[in-house]
Amino acid sequence: xxxxxxxxxxxxxxxxxxNHGRSYSDQWMTQLMTVPELSYGVIDITQLLQNYExxxxxxxxxxxxxxxxxxxxxxxSIALDKQWEQSQDDKPPERGVHALLEFQKMCxxxxxxxSSFKGKSLLDGNIGLQSRNSRGFKALAGAQGEKYTxxxxxxxxxxxxxxxxxxxxxxPLTPDLIRQESMILIREGDVxxxxxxxVDETEQTLVRHIQDxxxxxxxxxxxxxxxxxxxxxxxxxxxxxxxxxxMSQNTAIVSIPFHWAHVHLGHDCAGLINGQPxxxxxxxxxxxxxxxxxxxxxxxxHDQGTVEIMYMPVFIQTGLDIHDxxxxxxxxxxxxxxxxxxxxxxQFSSLDSVRIDxxxxxxxxxxxxxxxxxxxxxxxxxxxxxxxxxxxLAMMVLDGVKxxxxxxxxxxxxxxxxxxxxxxxxNQILNNVFHQK
Length: 437
Hints:
It is built from 9 helices and 18 strands. The protein is α+β, with helices and mostly antiparallel strands. It is elongated, with a radius of gyration of 27 Å.
């Protein structure tokens, strides 16, 4: 999850649409939200508190059912440990152990499949599933992509890869041109830098000093020298929405003097998913085949690469307007999604594939069950933290309401109280969310 979400966190356009940006589309947000009682947009204190209550209730149900799954896994572990203690005897494992494990897997599957909140399934991977079997595949247009099989088959073919917006100087840098140039301007949105070139500037110092100026202004740009010694400026984010422009004043080391440079706009990725053309945003494809949405991140060079696949989360608005949204991800706890990636002699791919027919299979099953226990406990810990955060935010707002009622007049509105005390809490929340594994 970290890889996909780090891409979204740095992608301003998707950040605006998905996380906590400045220009949400109400229609887009409505399409993403699947819990009807949640409120979005410009909302009042009552709706805000209801959002918190829904968030707490949703997470409480998920945690309770995760606890039930954890108990079953503990029972599995005890049964397998008892069997393993008999492995020194010259007889095969008891037949009843395999039957018991199959029954316990069925119970886990039933809990994960039936755990829901207001019609939204919680533990079957429909809230923020990250693909377990991402791997390299050919990305040539028309080539057959690898299939990613879980609830659906996703046949992915990348037909266009994302690129960065870029400016390359008109002419190569020379010491004479650098001496003749007095100023370079770079503009990104409302931010502009005017770098005045020093008399003793060299190619290397020019690149370094412009880069430093960009960093001071939080411009997400890289300054570099091309192979033919032209000054280059590249946006670090992917796709066509990340734009900037630049100008040189006296020479053509960036642009025709006093004219904004021609910017080679970045391309957004595009692909075919199950034969359906899908346009991307930066490196992320957004695929909506039915009621679910997927985020598909392409990462690679030339015609080789990997993808990460993730279901869309539930978004809960936590501020008085739609700029403040927390995504809630809950990984799948179905047996086929637990214990994946554990090396073992029998090559069991997941908890669901475990079969007890030898002492080696008992040993391998113990490994997968132990790993599954860690996965479930980590998920519980993360969701309990989020639940506690929603509870704290609710108390913070209620304290503001009480303060306003005591003041009678309205010199200190609740919204101001909320904004003043929200920043640290929200930063902690987002850090917790983005650093989930």
